[in-house]
Write a structure and sequence with these properties.
Layout (H helix, E strand, L loop, with lengths): L1 H11 L6 H31 L2 E7 L3 H10 L3 H4 L4 E4 L25 H6 L5 E4 L4 E6 L2 E12 L2 E11 L4 H18 L2 E8 L5 E9 L12 H13 L2 H7 L5 E7 L5 H12 L3 E5 L7 H9 L5 E6 L1 H11 L10 H4 L1 H16 L6 H9 L7 E7 L17 E5 L4 H11 L16 H5 L18 H14 L7 H10 L4 H6 L1 H61 L8 H13 L2 H10 L5 H4 L3 H17 L4 H6 L1 H9 L4 H4 L1
Parallel strand pairs: 7-10, 9-12, 9-13, 10-11, 11-12
Antiparallel strand pairs: 1-6, 2-3, 4-5, 5-6, 7-8
Helix pairs in contact: 1-2, 3-6, 7-9, 10-14, 11-13, 13-20, 15-17, 15-18, 20-21, 20-26, 21-24, 22-24
The structure holds adenosine-5'-triphosphate.
């Protein structure tokens, strides 16, 4: 106490006028005030916290999305005084729809260019680490958005605090947010992509508009069959449980590219209200563990899509022949493919992908595999799949997708040119193709589909003519769609010009086929040459190794048996030379600069002959072993031949 008094005395004594003392006085007073302030703030926070209920929502889980979506619709959220402005609206937290904070450009768009640009919406999101207060059902909610760094990278978190006796208000808030989110998501399908980093997790990839089932044109009954099967499965959980059958169902969609496999899955997801979880088995870093992790972490009701199932096994052949699902096909057993595989194998194993067939099978129906999911797998090469993979229980329903039939051609034409004209702008003369082509109309006035007026009869007649012109099973639906897209505003011309298009397509196909064949032939030739070269190099290497080995044996046998006749050693050299290429024996001779001139020009066989001669000579020369050791292995070899360094010089 006395010490404190003595410290403060210079400050309190009235007769001190020294400026240093004044400064000290201020510092002490300021420090005391600040300490008091901090203490009171902390006491207040403690007091408040004892009344507040706080909930945390992590971006990694769905409630975060529901709440961000709900918040995006609150006026107070949009009026935040500290905010980020972003155009990156494709975002898991639902800012793809208009939010209360969005900036809208109200100007009428005059040009097509502007109409396109206008779609880029500017959104306002309250910035991180600031607290916002929102009034909700008689309570003030304190909301803070923070960012933290998790194992999977950056991760946002939402903290909501409310003064309340129990957590009913927070429960109501979460449920309301969930309902609103689901209502808005009704028209979209959420896509999640497998991320193989950090042991495998799901990354939200966007929400796509639902695709109506009517836009998928398949042979009659196929769509209905699949849809009915999926629906039946989803409501049969108890049935499966009663019989002890794992509640899973697999669909294998196989066939030509561009025939509608992916589109059908997208459309089914929309119809069934399920999200899609996409796994690419050939992606970098995919392993048994990663796949098991991913499969174990899908929600109970969803579609899991394994795209291009065969691709994983095409790689797998070179990765681990024992454990992959690739049956040994004719093509893979020929020389060229083997050598190509060998050449690629290093590159493929380097990416850390170690997926095996057993790993894949386990993740599909092992004990840890998720239940309640619909598994869809697509492939263009069903013949490459292992039968174990496609057996019932793993793939219960198989659907073959072929090139377009006449029936499909007619159907897709009708999809493009529906009977009723939609929102036809009166200023456009539908019969004038040039005015139809000009679709640079502002979005609000622009019809959602092509501007044409065709009666039902006209559409039927045109569709029939179009289908008649299309050969069965030659063109994919995707290529027909491409042609129709080019002519989306010219239905009549589209039909008239279809024969010319077919000829052109055939020519292009033939040209591409020829180019492909040439390329393949060239690649095969190169691969064969490479394989031959590799073989030769390998043989050469082996010969070199054997020669080196025999030489070292010779050296080691020489040391303890320095006194023995050297004929034995020579015999050894001779025997090794008889199985290896002659030049290998010659090599040490020719590189030995201290050897005689005749040695430099001697062939391998000559060398052998010479060796026997020199060794006989050598038997009469008692060479000190030490001198040979001093000059290294080559010189030792020479010494054996009777040319000790001191003699040759
Ligand atoms: N049967 C179909 N009905 C309607 N549209 C189709 C059909 N088949 C293909 N398409 C159209 O062709 C395009 C490609 O289709 P999709 O991606 O579904 O084919 P895919 O069979 O999955 O091809 P790939 O095997 O190459 O992945 C899509 O834009 C789709 O609209």
């Amino acid at each position: 106490m006395d010490a404190l008094k003595s410290l403060l005395s210079p400050l309190t004594s009235s007769n001190v006028t020294n400026p240093i003392h004044d400064t000290l006085k201020l510092v002490v007073i300021g420090g005391t005030v600040e300490t008091a302030r901090r203490a009171s703030v902390s006491a207040w926070n403690g007091f408040i916290d004892s009344f507040f209920l706080t909930a945390h929502f992590s971006q990694e889980d769905y409630p975060y999305d529901w709440l961000m979506h709900w918040l995006s619709k609150q006026p107070a959220w949009g009026r935040s005084r500290e905010f980020d402005i972003t155009t990156r609206t494709v975002n898991r937290h639902g800012l793809t729809q208009s939010t209360s904070g969005d900036l809208e450009d109200d100007e009428d768009d005059e040009s097509e260019d502007l109409a396109t640009r206008r779609k880029r919406k500017v959104a306002i999101i309250p910035s991180v680490d600031t607290t916002h207060t929102i009034y909700y059902r008689g309570h003030w909610l304190r909301i803070t958005r923070t960012k933290r760094y998790s194992d999977f990278g950056q991760c946002a978190e939402l903290k909501i605090s409310v003064v309340a006796r129990n957590n009913d208000i927070l429960k109501r808030l979460v449920l309301e947010a969930k309902r609103e989110y689901e209502k808005d998501a009704e028209h979209r399908v959420h896509i999640f992509m497998a991320d193989t980093l950090y042991g495998g997790h799901w990354r939200w990839n966007g929400a796509r508009q639902k695709r109506p089932m009517s836009s998928i044109v398949l042979e009659p009954g196929v769509k209905d069959m699949i849809l009915a099967d999926c629906k039946d499965f989803l409501r049969s959980e108890d049935w499966y449980a009663e019989r002890g059958i794992p509640f899973r169902r697999g669909y294998l969609l196989h066939g030509v590219p561009g025939s509608g496999k992916t589109s059908l899955i997208h459309s089914l997801a929309g119809e069934l209200g399920l999200d899609i979880y996409v796994i690419s088995l050939s992606s970098k870093g995919m392993s048994d563990n990663t796949l098991a992790n991913l499969m174990g972490n899908v929600p109970s009701r969803c579609i899991v899509l394994l795209e291009d199932l065969d691709a994983a096994f095409t790689r797998g052949v070179s990765r681990d022949e024992k454990s992959t699902g690739a049956p040994t096909s004719g093509s893979s057993s020929n020389t060229s493919s083997t050598s190509t595989t060998t050449a690629k194998s290093k590159e493929e194993t380097d990416d850390g992908s170690t997926l095996s067939l057993s790993g894949l099978l386990n993740s599909l129906d092992g004990v840890a595999a998720a239940e309640g999911r619909l598994l869809f797998a697509t492939t263009n090469h069903i013949e490459r799949l292992d039968p174990a993979l496609s057996r019932p229980g793993r793939m219960d329903v198989w659907v073959n997708f072929k090139n377009a039939t006449k029936w499909q051609a007619e159907g897709i034409f009708k999809c493009f040119f529906p009977v009723k004209p939609v929102n036809v702008t009166p200023t456009i003369d539908p019969k004038d193709p040039t005015s139809q082509e000009n679709l640079a109309v502002p979005k609000r006035q622009r019809p959602s589909v092509a501007t044409h007026t065709l009666t039902e009869d006209e559409v039927c007649v045109l569709a029939k003519r179009f289908a008649d012109a299309i050969p069965n099973d030659e063109f994919s639906v995707a290529s027909l769609q491409g042609y129709l897209l080019k002519n989306k505003t010219r239905p009549r011309e589209c039909v008239e010009e279809v024969s010319a298009w077919i000829i052109q397509e055939r020519e292009t196909k033939a040209k591409l086929k020829k180019e492909k064949e040439e390329r393949e032939a060239k690649e095969k030739k190169e691969a064969e040459a490479l394989a031959k070269k590799e073989k030769e190099e390998e043989a050469k290497k082996k010969a070199e190794e054997a020669a080196a080995e025999s030489k070292s044996e010779e050296t080691t046998t020489e040391e303890p048996k320095a006194e023995k006749p050297s004929r034995i050693k020579v015999k050894k050299v001779k025997s090794s030379a008889s199985v290896k290429p002659a030049e290998k024996v010659e090599e040490p001779v020719s590189t030995d600069s201290s050897s005689s001139e005749s040695e430099n020009t001697t062939s391998g066989e000559d060398a052998d002959a010479e060796e026997s001669v020199t060794s006989e000579e050598e038997s009469t020369i008692k060479e000190p072993v030490e001198s040979a050791e001093k000059t290294g292995s080559k010189e030792t070899w020479v010494a054996v031949k009777g040319h000790p360094p001191d003699q040759s010089v």
